[in-house]
């Protein structure tokens, strides 16, 4: 639907940016929202207790003019007994505090021709329900934009614990009427307090950073490309998901294609990462000159053994591999393929002949992996099964007299990559590469899928 409306807008020549495809996408399900509600409950309870509330003053005609001012209003206790969070289609999120209770301390100054008193008073509030709808959209710069859409408060019962001055005031009101009066007063004040408070939340959300430095080479831009989409069962957050080299920010020459999540309703969160995002990561590392490895002595000796047999005495052997183009990632169901173009340089001395040899080997290869990610004992483990689809080599050397050795070098390097190098990588991946769960979030029940054009990770969250 949104794609159709985007198309219509595009045809009308309006709002071009509304149709940008995301490079990454998050889906938060109602299961995720239930979990967020548990976390938010504690946050709201603490926020309410930390509220600084304005004085309330007014006057009434109760057998003569009565003026009052309520000051030093402090919520001493606040407990949410029942609450929920729900999606509001096309708008955002609704926070339902279905039942809550509070004890509010305050100082009352009352002036009437029969009373003039200032007194500390405790008010017990129960059966308080508050329904607040937050609209969530996006700013021009791609940050989330939160605003208060509506607020409705209803307090069922108020009881006033008071001393003599307020008792006198209570007597001036008809029985129970003071409580009703305070209840009405509070009902009318809660939403203005919520409005004030939500401005602070909005400032916090609107200032949410949309760029993050990943390591010494790259950063990610995950600004929202479209306003979040809310249905009654989930919310989709569409992010740019572009990686850039830290000191070399150029826009990629390719754009993300649309992608659609497969079913994830049994999980709190689904995260989609497109091949676009992975390829910008690859380009970022490439332009930051980070895609190079130096072979270990053991690895280079393996090549030389292939080349000369064990008897040959070589020294000062060096070898390295660097990418000559950014690797290209293609995602297909259960198949992630990386096309690599690189260059291997090998240099060594032949002790007996007192000569140095140097070869350059250009390689073009394609490697596929069936990857999976699992989680256990707060460790996230990546495992995979690698296949070398193709490998083409071309050997050259500055030293033209070496030309007779090219075929041999090619054979040795090929054998090294096919057996030693791939076997080592495959061994590591089969064994699994583990990361400890970040300490602020615990991913439970993690599921990983490679789809056409994107990776989908479904997960529950154990702790926030
Ligand atoms: C609230 O009332 C107290 C006591 O009367 C007074 O000291 C304080 O200045 C008032 N605060 C505001 C914001 O009017
Ligand atoms: C290799 O060369 C080193 C010195 O360059 C020498 O000490 C060693 O004996 C040689 N080994 C063989 C097997 O020729
Ligand atoms: C994975 O995909 C690549 C092309 O994208 C293909 O060449 C390769 O054969 C596929 N591997 C498997 C195991 O399907
Ligand atoms: C990929 O791995 C999964 C799970 O290990 C397996 O079921 C599936 O057959 C594998 N697919 C391919 C193409 O190897």
Automatic annotation (TrEMBL):
Q: Give compartment(s).
A: Secreted
Task: Output the Gene Ontology cellular-component terms.
Answer: extracellular space
Highest taxon listed in the record's lineage: Eukaryota
Q: Which PROSITE patterns match?
A: LBP_BPI_CETP
Q: Name one GO molecular function term.
A: lipid binding
Which residue ranges does the record assign to the Lipid-binding serum glycoprotein C-terminal domain?
263-459
- Signal peptide boundaries: 1-19
Which Pfam families did the record assign? LBP_BPI_CETP, LBP_BPI_CETP_C
What the record says about family reads: Belongs to the BPI/LBP/Plunc superfamily. BPI/LBP family.
What is recorded about the domains?
A: The N- and C-terminal barrels adopt an identical fold despite having only 13% of conserved residues. The N-terminal region may be exposed to the interior of the granule, whereas the C-terminal portion may be embedded in the membrane. During phagocytosis and degranulation, proteases may be released and activated and cleave BPI at the junction of the N- and C-terminal portions of the molecule, providing controlled release of the N-terminal antibacterial fragment when bacteria are ingested.
Subunit text: Monomer. Homodimer; disulfide-linked.
The record ties this protein, via PANTHER family, to: BACTERICIDAL PERMEABILITY-INCREASING BPI PROTEIN-RELATED, BACTERICIDAL PERMEABILITY-INCREASING PROTEIN
UniProt protein name: Bactericidal permeability-increasing protein
The organism is: Geotrypetes seraphini (Gaboon caecilian)
């Amino acid at each position: 639907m949104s794609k159709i409306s985007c198309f219509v807008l595009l045809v009308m020549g309006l709002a071009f940016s509304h149709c940008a495809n995301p490079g990454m996408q998050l889906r938060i399900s109602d299961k995720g929202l239930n979990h967020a509600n548990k976390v938010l409950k504690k946050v709201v309870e603490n926020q309410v207790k930390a509220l600084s509330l304005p004085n309330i003053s007014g006057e009434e005609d109760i057998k003569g003019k009565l003026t009052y001012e309520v000051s030093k209003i402090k919520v001493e206790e606040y407990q949410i007994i029942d609450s929920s969070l729900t999606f509001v289609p096309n708008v955002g999120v609704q926070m339902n505090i279905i039942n809550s209770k509070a004890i509010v301390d305050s100082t009352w100054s009352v002036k009437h021709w029969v009373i003039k008193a200032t007194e500390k008073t405790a008010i017990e509030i129960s059966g308080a329900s508050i329904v607040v709808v937050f609209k969530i959209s996006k700013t021009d710069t791609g940050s989330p934009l939160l605003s208060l859409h509506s607020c409705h408060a209803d307090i069922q019962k108020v009881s006033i614990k008071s001393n003599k001055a307020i008792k006198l005031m209570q007597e001036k009101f008809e029985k129970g009427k003071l409580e009703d009066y305070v209840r009405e007063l509070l009902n009318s004040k809660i939403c203005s307090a919520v409005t004030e408070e939500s401005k602070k939340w909005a400032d916090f959300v609107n200032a949410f950073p949309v760029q993050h430095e990943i390591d010494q080479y790259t950063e990610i831009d995950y600004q929202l490309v479209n306003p979040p989409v809310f249905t009654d069962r989930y919310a989709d957050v569409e992010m740019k998901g572009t990686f850039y080299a830290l000191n070399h920010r150029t826009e990629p020459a390719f754009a993300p294609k649309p992608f659609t999540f497969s079913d994830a309703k049994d999980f709190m969160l689904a995260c989609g990462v497109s091949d676009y995002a992975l390829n910008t990561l690859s380009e970022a590392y490439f332009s930051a000159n980070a895609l190079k490895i130096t072979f270990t002595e053991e690895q280079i000796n393996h090549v030389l053994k292939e080349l000369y047999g064990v008897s040959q005495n070589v020294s000062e052997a060096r070898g390295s591999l660097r990418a000559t183009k950014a690797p290209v990632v293609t995602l297909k169901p259960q198949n992630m393929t990386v096309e690599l173009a690189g260059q291997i340089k090998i240099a060594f001395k032949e002790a007996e002949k007192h000569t140095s040899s140097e070869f350059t080997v250009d390689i073009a290869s394609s490697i596929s992996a069936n990857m999976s990610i699992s989680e256990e004992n707060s460790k996230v483990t990546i495992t995979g099964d690698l296949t070398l689809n193709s490998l083409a080599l071309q050997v050259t050397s500055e030293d033209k007299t070496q030309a007779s050795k090219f075929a041999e070098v090619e054979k040795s390097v090929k054998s090294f990559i096919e057996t030693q190098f791939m076997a080592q990588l495959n061994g590591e991946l089969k064994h699994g590469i583990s990361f400890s769960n970040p300490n602020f979030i615990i991913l439970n029940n993690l599921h990983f899928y490679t789809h056409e054009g994107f990776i989908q990770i479904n997960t529950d969250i154990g702790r926030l």
